[in-house]
């Protein structure tokens, strides 16, 4: 197993180096020069091979002594259509006449800012960039006495102020990506391990707890379990999980292809659900899952043949669980992917993702140690415990199917599982088992009543019998569905209010948290009445879905993009991952006055 892991890591490293050598650094992709002529200031930008600029991202502004937009008064070469965008492939030469500057505001000194964003045909998109130049008029310069020391201090203060302002205008994801660039490797890895510990208490990791627990219980049937053995099994699971996150992240960062999102299609989810159903019936004793005999024969030739069979199975389960069970997108993950995409540094980005995954796996390691330490010796009781975990595996299978099947059918499946579990546990005569089985059976009855009534949320089976408050709340927030970039641009053009674009998918657990918790909060509903609400469903991961995600640097749902009433994107308000109502309102209050 160690040789396999080392081999895979070496392949990833070699692959990342090969790709990294082909990626142009920002200063190679975009060479910007300000040229001062007799009657004008020219901005020349030379583009690297296969590099293009987004036409709608170009900005030319006077920033001092007053902020004034200039682009609408300037002549640019005609852009072309490419991959659904309006872009420039040729070098640009933007001429700004001095007469234009004087007509906007009369001054002896101007600071000109040029903003742009571009991509490579290879699929790599660069972060928005800007270049500034201070323009003096010669007659005025001769009369001005400049103290070099004071001027140096002034420039440093202006640079610090500008840097601070730019950081304040960055989103949480962009700040994390910037920290990767600016911090030492050791600090980056320590920080991302801390991010992983925080993410360990999110819905991404919770489903893996019963999966790992069932593996340990199954392993305990035939041999005694110790804390050391439990830790070893959970470590194999966590390392495989971390490897999967790393590979998927590096691929997404370099190519813009979200491997985890690609695996959230109905065929894969149904197939993986049947794997858990098979595991459940194996735990019920109907059959035993084994590796193919040819593989078993090769493994058994080693000194630890039987143990290696189990290790390989656990590693496979950990690898697949990371890709299919928990495809959550959070700011640290998005920040690492943005960093990889901007710099091509797959090595540091991959290392950050790997240690973040290890942090996420800490609770799983603790479960392995605890299960190994407190697990009694194998005996008849283990058969009952194994069957209980078989019921839990059926629950995991329904949880996966819930992403692709009708919510009402999902309600019926949950009710049947609870009713069956309640009946099954009645065979145990212990008073605690009897009490638990009765409670589970009652919940099953409640769930079946809810399903018959048309309820779709297992946590709110009686929602159709309530006074209707929750239904009214849900109707109060009306999202306009967007399917492609053209529809989005049309909706933004027609809006007279600030705008929110919600990236959503049926398989996204955190998206449902936003829907059921944040967007149903009274204060949030009241605040959002002043916004135009747009939603794009990226469940199918179609070409249109990929294009609109690429446009805004979204690596996966949930993500929220904001525009102000002037139709300017508010980058500092961008949200990635779940935010509770309080956090959500704080972001809105910080970025929107009304």
TrEMBL record:
It is a multi-pass membrane protein. InterPro entries: Cyt_c_assmbl_TM_dom, DsbD_gamma, DsbDN, DsbDN_sf, Thioredoxin-like_sf, Thioredoxin_CS, Thioredoxin_domain. Residues 456-593 form the Thioredoxin domain. GO terms for cellular component: plasma membrane. Its EC number is 1.8.1.8. One of its GO terms (biological process) is cell redox homeostasis. The chain crosses the membrane at residues 186-209, 230-255, 267-289, 310-340, 346-367, 388-405, 411-428, 435-455. It is found in: Cell membrane. Keywords: Cell membrane, Cytochrome c-type biogenesis, Membrane, Oxidoreductase, Redox-active center, Transmembrane, Transmembrane helix. Its main location: membrane. The keyword Hydrolase does not apply. The keyword Membrane applies. It comes from the Bacteria. GO terms for molecular function: protein-disulfide reductase [NAD(P)H] activity. CDD domains: DsbDgamma. PANTHER family: THIOL:DISULFIDE INTERCHANGE PROTEIN DSBD. This is Thiol:disulfide interchange protein DsbD. It comes from Aliarcobacter cryaerophilus ATCC 43158. The gene is dsbD.
């Amino acid at each position: 197993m160690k040789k396999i892991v080392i081999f895979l890591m070496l392949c990833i490293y070699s692959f990342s180096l090969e790709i990294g050598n082909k990626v142009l650094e920002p200063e190679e992709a975009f060479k910007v020069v300000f040229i001062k002529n007799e009657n004008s200031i020219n901005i020349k930008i030379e583009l690297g091979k296969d590099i293009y600029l987004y036409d709608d991202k170009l900005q030319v502004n006077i920033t001092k002594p007053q902020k004034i937009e200039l682009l609408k008064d300037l002549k640019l070469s005609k852009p072309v259509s490419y991959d659904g965008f309006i872009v420039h492939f040729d070098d640009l030469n933007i001429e700004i006449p001095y007469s234009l500057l004087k007509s906007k505001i009369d001054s002896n000194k101007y600071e000109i800012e040029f903003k742009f964003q571009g991509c490579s045909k290879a699929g790599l998109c660069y972060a928005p960039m800007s270049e500034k130049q201070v323009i003096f008029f010669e007659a005025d310069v001769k009369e001005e006495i400049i103290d070099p020391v004071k001027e140096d201090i002034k420039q440093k203060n202006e640079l610090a102020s500008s840097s601070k302002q730019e950081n304040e205008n960055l989103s949480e994801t962009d700040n994390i990506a910037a920290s990767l660039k600016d911090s030492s490797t050791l600090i980056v890895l320590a920080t991302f391990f801390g991010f992983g510990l925080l993410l360990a208490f999110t819905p991404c990791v919770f489903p893996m707890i019963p999966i790992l627990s069932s593996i340990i219980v199954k392993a305990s049937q035939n041999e005694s379990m110790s804390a050391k053995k439990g830790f070893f099994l959970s470590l194999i699971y966590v390392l495989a999980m971390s490897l999967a996150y790393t590979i998927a992240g590096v691929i997404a960062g370099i190519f813009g292809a979200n491997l985890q999102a690609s695996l959230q299609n109905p065929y894969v989810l149904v197939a993986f659900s049947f794997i858990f159903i098979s595991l459940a019936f194996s735990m019920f004793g109907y059959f035993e899952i084994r590796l193919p005999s040819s593989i078993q024969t090769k493994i058994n030739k080693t000194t630890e043949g039987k143990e290696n069979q189990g290790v390989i199975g656990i590693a496979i389960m950990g690898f697949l669980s990371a890709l299919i069970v928990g495809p959550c997108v959070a700011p640290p993950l998005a920040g690492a992917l943005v960093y990889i995409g901007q710099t091509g540094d797959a090595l540091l980005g991959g290392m950050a993702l790997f240690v973040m995954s290890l942090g996420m796996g800490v609770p799983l390691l603790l479960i392995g140690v605890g299960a190994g330490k407190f697990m009694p010796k194998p005996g008849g009781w283990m058969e009952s415990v194994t069957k209980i975990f078989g019921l839990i595996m059926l629950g995991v299978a329904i949880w996966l199917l819930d992403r692709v099947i009708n919510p009402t059918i999902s309600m019926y499946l949950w009710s049947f599982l609870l009713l069956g579990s309640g009946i099954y546990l009645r065979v145990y005569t212990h008073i605690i088992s009897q009490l638990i089985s009765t409670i589970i059976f009652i919940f099953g009855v409640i769930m079946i009543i809810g399903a018959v009534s048309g309820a779709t949320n297992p946590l709110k089976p009686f929602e159709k019998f309530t006074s209707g408050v929750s239904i009214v709340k849900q109707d109060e927030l009306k999202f306009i569905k967007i399917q492609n970039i053209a529809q989005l641009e049309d909706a933004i053009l027609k809006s007279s209010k600030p705008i929110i674009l919600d990236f959503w998918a049926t398989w996204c657990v955190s998206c449902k948290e936003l829907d059921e918790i944040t967007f149903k909060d009274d204060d949030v509903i009241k605040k959002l009445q002043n916004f135009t609400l747009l939603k794009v469903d990226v469940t199918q991961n179609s070409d249109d879905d990929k294009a609109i995600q690429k446009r805004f640097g979204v690596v996966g749902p949930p993500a929220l993009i904001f525009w102000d009433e002037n139709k300017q994107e508010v980058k500092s308000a961008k949200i990635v991952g779940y935010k509770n109502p309080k956090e959500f309102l704080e972001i809105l209050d910080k970025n929107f006055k009304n």
